[in-house]
Amino acid sequence: MLFLVMAIWGFNLSALVILVNNIEPITLTSVRIFVAGISVLIISKIIGIFRLPTRQEWKTIFIITIFNVAFHHTLLAIGLTSTSGVNAGIILGAAPLVTMVLSIILLHDKVSRLRAVGFIFGFIGIMITSLAGAEGLSSISYGDLMIFLSMLMQAFSFILISKLNPTFDPRLLTGYMLVLGSGFIFIVSLIVEGNVTQLTKLFSFKLGIIFLFSAIMATAFGHMTYNYAIKNVGPTETTIFVNLNTLFALLGTAIFLGEPILRNHYFGLVFILLGIFIGSGTLEYVLRKRRLRS
Fold first, then answer.
1. Distance between CA atoms of 111 and 99, rounded to whole angstroms?
2. DSSP letters of 5-66?
């Protein structure tokens, strides 16, 4: 399921490029997340997990929403307007490493040396892949700081989700979180951009279909599944799969935007796949099975 989500998120990059070329990014993000949140709540009702949170659960949802939706998406949208795609890709590619460090500090998780090597391999793959283009690594900027803070806020929210009350389904949490977060982002969009009428462009057939894919498939289904995995698999194991975003983002930009795939991209993807194989614990599992057989 995580592999499928990463494929959808990777292709969603191409969808977002098309959308933000027509609509201001923060305004678009607020509406996309609101539609996704409503979709998740409807799905939760259909599959029988919908319920109203308790007073204590509302407090937890609010705190996670601030970090995972409001801060993360707002800082990301602002940062992308002031930095290069290469810098953003490398910074976001460090998310698994940052999540691993936070898990060790805050959750006292134990990560083996072999799995730590997997995380480093994944980050090396992100760097090779991101630097393969002609754009190169530009100097550190204000936008880079915003992207890093965005990634840090999301990584911290993964820790909070993993500690959520076991009786509260993380898929339902996703719905409430997205709806609440969209409100915060919409207020920011009114202050920063202030042009709601541009949303009428979404009524065109092409942009409408792309928007629905991004909102329902990438954001609603994707975040439902991802947050469910965080709760059941753990933040460290789940986050290593984020590196697959780069693989599918490259395929998506090649297919939908006509951008070339270079030789260095393939080298980077080898490191990414090795990083996931080692960092997710799969290699340790295989080695353990072999020892038991012998």
1. 12
2. HHHHHHHHHHHHHHHHTTS-HHHHHHHHHHHHHHHHHHHHHHTT---PPPHHHHHHHHHHHI
pLDDT value at residue 246: 72
Pair 173, 64: CB distance under 8 Å:
yes
Largest CA distance in the chain: 68
Collapsed DSSP state (helix, strand, coil) of residue 165 = coil
**What is the rounded distance in angstroms from the CA atom of residue 244 to the CA atom of residue 272?**
7
CA-CA distance, 254 to 243, in Å (whole number)?
A: 18
- Cβ-contact 63, 246 below 8 angstroms: no
Contact 201, 23 (CB under 8 A): yes
Residue 41 CA to its chain's centroid (Å): 20
pLDDT tens for each residue of 256-276: 878 777 777 788 878 888 888
Q: How many angstroms separate the CA atoms of 133 and 182, rounded? A: 34
Q: Tens digits of per-residue pLDDT, 54-109?
A: 888 899 899 999 999 999 988 887 887 777 666 676 677 778 888 888 888 888 88
Tell me the three state secondary structure of residue 109: coil
Q: Cα separation of 53 and 64, whole Å? A: 14
Q: Can you give the pLDDT at residue 242?
A: 78
Instruction: Decide: 275 and 240 in contact? Cβ < 8 Å.
Output: yes
Q: At what angle do helices 142-162 and 85-93 cross, to 10 degrees?
A: 30
Taking the C-alpha atoms of 73, 74, 79 and 81 in order, what is their torsion angle to the nearest 10 degrees? 100
77 vs 38: CA distance, rounded Å: 22
* DSSP, res 218: I
Res 119: pLDDT: 86
Q: Which amino acid is present at 94?
A: A
Q: Give the Cα separation of 130 and 141 in Å (integer).
A: 17
> Tens of pLDDT along 102-159?
888 888 888 888 888 888 888 888 777 767 655 555 556 788 888 889 989 999 998 8
d(CA 162, CA 160): 5
